[in-house]
Structure formats: structure tokens, C-alpha cells
Amino acid sequence: MLDFTFDAAGGLLAFLVVVRVVLIVAISHVAVRYTKKLLHIFQLNGYNYGEHLRWMLRNDTKFLPNVFLLFFGTLWLILLLIFGSLSENSLVLLAVLLPLSLPLAYSPIGSTQKKPLVSTWRVKRIIATSVLLVLLSYAILFCTLGFDLLAVSISLYFLTALLPCLPLLANFINTPMEALLRRYFIEDAKRIIRNHTSLITIGITGSYGKTSMKYYVTELLKGKYRVLMTPASFNTPLGISKTIREDLRATHEVFVCEMGAKKVGEIAELCDIVQPTHGILTAIGNQHLETFLSQENITRTKFELADAVKQRGMLFANTDNYIINDNLPAQPTVTYGTHDTATVHAHDIITSTNGTDFSLTCDASSLTNAPNADVSRETFATTEYATLLLGEHNVVNLAGAIAVAKYLGVTDDEINMRLKRITPTEHRLSLSKSGDLTILDDAYNSNPAGAAAALKTLNMLGGYKILVTPGMIELGVEQDVCNAKFGEQAAEVCDYIILVGEKQTTAIRDGLLSAHYPTEQIYVATTLQDAMQHVYSLKTFAHKVVLLENDLPDNYDV
Predict the structure, then answer these.
(1) Which phi and psi (to 5°) does residue 404 adopt?
(2) What are 517-550's pLDDT values in tens digits?
């Protein structure tokens, strides 16, 4: 027992005990917050150990507090075991070391969340296993040292140091159960699809443009069919299986399914689940090159959708994309784009702040074999359309969606009516007014083709053109090259450029300087908030038009 007589030594000891209790409460709170952040990152990385390890290596400096705590804590414990017992004298050292774990409350990721942690059943299982692991470690330590403040302090100290490993270890322990559940959910989804014999399934994949295409196709088909689409970015095996199991009804006639992939074979796996009747290839680029490793792997994976629909229905392919155009398979295909060689091609595209007007010429003869086609349409009929959407790349996606709608028997009048209902998707080249600014928001995601299209749209709008961007990511070894080219393209269009994050935007700055862009018209911001404050502070006589190109996800550091 401790003797708390009120003398200098006893007073100091009592003070240290109080400090230690306060620290235990504070660090317990820190541990919960920190674990939630790490689990959030693990979820954003798709629970993939390889991708999560790459993220940790990319953010290695943010784990220095953990390394420091683990090294000095272990050293301190070894010295105590060698030279003395775990007595009250260790309180002084522990009281000094424990506060060092408090900065972990704000590391390794910030408090802002663009895409919050989704409390799925898998997340709940990881949390439950993590709690059991913590309780087990406490039990072992208490049995060894006894249940007192010192044992609790040591437990919390080392738990805080090892927190980055906790969600990974919990997920690893859960792996057999997760594999069984995954197999059950997928097989149940397959069964539902097999039993829905009249269902028309439209698979959509591409390096970019697939989410927008999904919304456009769904909207145009709604007038004729009962349509279900995968929500948000539910484009993985479990996300698609969840949609099928929970939302697909016998009354649905069309299922529009977005298909995402980061590795070879993943599109084939999704096709095995949904058995697509028709497929749409939106575009192929070097997105996710870090995981695909090569452009050839990306191309082969995306064309797994073409293989899946070869014996079932029609492939719709964007031949504006040279990779798709150069790899078109020998199977029934409707092509779309802005080139007059496409089956459905858009032309006379005019963009303003009110939207986009364009004409669409369709080779109707290519659609006459469709089960629901309107065979009365004239070959090479041209129709004029108007949309609230901005940008040529949106028109290309609309051309593909219109091709699908025409193929499935939707009339031109119905297409025209429903086309006017399509509004810009948030953060996908949407236009808004904010005070004396016009903001062109293309912050959802960025790729070389989309960034070039956004600059082209910005150039059409006039005014004092300002670019705000952190650059493009997930482009592997091509990332710096693509960002440098983006800088060169921006130099031709923009009056002022704000780069978000010095480290991330070095290649863009190099591209700007190689194009002889004035350095006084470049500002490097630390955060998006800093960038927008600088935008508002700029003095100019012309109306400011701001392009927000890309916004880095929570698991990326500038």
C-alpha cells in the first residue's frame, strides 16, 4: 500500500497518481478516436492489406509517435525488470511517458471526413474483435501485475503504441468468418438473379465515367421500365450483392449495375454474379495503375465485361477513347462518341452557363435487331437535344445512354423529356454561384481525360479563370507525367492557379513552369480552405470563375 502522508514526497506521489488517473481517462478517449480513424482508412482501402500497407508507407512520418512510444516504453520496461521491480518509483517515468501518446488523437489522419466511416456489419465485427483483444491483453497483464493503476497505465500505454495494428489483427482473426459470409451473400445474390429470368441487366465499367453513365441510363429508361440501379459507389462484389439481396424485386425489369475493379479478374467476378445482358464500356485510362500495375492489365480487365455479354446481348463502347477503339472485339457492338464513324455520334456541341446544346446522329439500322427497337426510325436520323449538364465528356456519356435507351425501345420524345430532368451530379462538373464567384465543381475524382475536359469547359465559360487542384492520384508510375501534362494544359487556359499541397502538386508546378507560366500567378495552399480564402482575396475586375478539379480522399495526404 502507498503511504499518502502529507510530506513533500507523499504530496508529489499523490499528485502523480491524480495526474495518472486523468491521463488514463484522456488516453482511453484518444485510443477510441484513433482506432476509429484507422478503421476508417482501412475501410477506404477496401480492407486490402497490400493497399493499406502502401498507405502506411506513404504516410510513414505520421506513425513516428507510435514508434517513439513503443521503443522508449519497451526500453523503460526492460530496465525496470532488470534493475528494479514495478514499484511506485516507476510512477514518475510513466507520468512523463504517458502524455506523449496524446498527440495520437490527431494522427495519422485529420478530423475532416469527405466520406465518413460506414458502420457495416463487417466494421461492427472488427470493432467487437478489437474490444475482445483489448480485454484479453488487459486480463493477461492484470494476472501478471495485479489490478492496480500501474497495470492499467502500462496496458493503455502499449495499446496506444500498437493501435495501428489493432484493426488489421482483428480483421485477420475474422478472415475465416468473413470468407464464409462473403460466399453466402454472393451465392444468394446469384440465386436471385438466376430466378429473375426476365430481368435485363446492364453492366457498366470503365476507368472513369461509369457512375455518371449509370445515372443517365437509369433516368432515360425510367419512362418505359421499372429500373433498379446500384446506389452510390456500390460497385464491388459485396456492394452489388447487397443491392440485389435487399432491393431487387420481381417487379423490376432492368438492373443497371456499376462495376468497379482494381485488379485483373474482378470484372469477370462481378459478371459471374449479375450475368449482364448488355454491357457499356465508358472509357479506359490509367486510373488505379498502382494496383493494376500496367495499362494492359486495366484494358484486359475492363474487356471482361465484353466477354460476358458476347453471347447474351449488345456491347456499347465509347470509341472516342482510343484504347477502346483499338481493342474492339468481334461481337455485336454499338459505338458512341463525337466521331462521325460511331453508330451514335454527338456534334455541334455548345456549352454555356445554362447547360449544353448538342445534336445526335444515330445509325438506326444498327438498332433494328434489338428486341424493343423502334424500327420506324430513319437511318442516320439527327435529333437536337438540350441538357443542364456541362462539358463535352458529359455529352459523350449522354450519347452512350441515349444509344442504350434507343436500343431498348425508348422513343425520341421520351428521351427528350427525360433528358431535361437530368441534373448535374454533385462534384461532377456541377455549376453554382457563390457570391461574386461562379464555381465549376469537378472535385469528385480526377483523371487525365476528365481534367482536360474540365479545362475545356472552363475555357468556354469566360471570365477570370482560376484553377484550384491537388492534382491526380492513383496513376502509379505515370502520375507525375500526367500531372505535369495537366499543368501544361492549365497554363493555356487559366489566369490564376492554386495548388493544394506542396508535395502532391510538385509535378503540376513543373508542368506550369515548363510552359512559362508566371510564378506570381501560382499559389500553393496547405488546405482547400486556405485555397478558397485565397480565391476570395484575389482582386480582379472580371467575374471570377473557379474550377475545383479533384479533392483528395481521406486516405491520401498532400
Answers:
(1) -65, -45
(2) 988 888 888 888 888 888 888 888 888 888 888 7
- Determine how many CB atoms are found less than 10 A away from the CB of residue 456: 15
Which among 40, 59, 53 is positioned nearest to 556, based on CA atoms?
59
Identify the DSSP state of 355. Answer: E
**Unique residue bearing C-alpha cell 512559362:** 516
Q: Residue 435: in which H helix or E strand, if any?
A: none
Nearest by Cα to 271 from 228, 294, 305, 223: 305
Whether the upstream peptide bond of residue 108 has omega within 30° of 0, thus cis, is: yes
Domain spans in the chain, listed from the N-terminal domain onward: 12-174, 196-419, 430-549
Domain 430-549 -> CATH class: alpha beta
- Homologous superfamily of domain range 196-419: Mur-like, catalytic domain (3.40.1190.10)
Cα–Cα separations (whole angstroms), residue 123 to 119, 129, 146: 6, 10, 33
Nearest to 442 by CA among 530, 546, 544, 523: 546
* Residue 154 near residue 162 (C-beta atoms within 8 A): no
Cβ within 8 Å of residue 322, ≥6 positions away:
none
User: 405: burial class by Cβ within 10 Å (0-12, 13-18, 19+)?
Assistant: buried
pLDDT at 152: 62
- Longest CA pairwise span in the chain (Å): 102
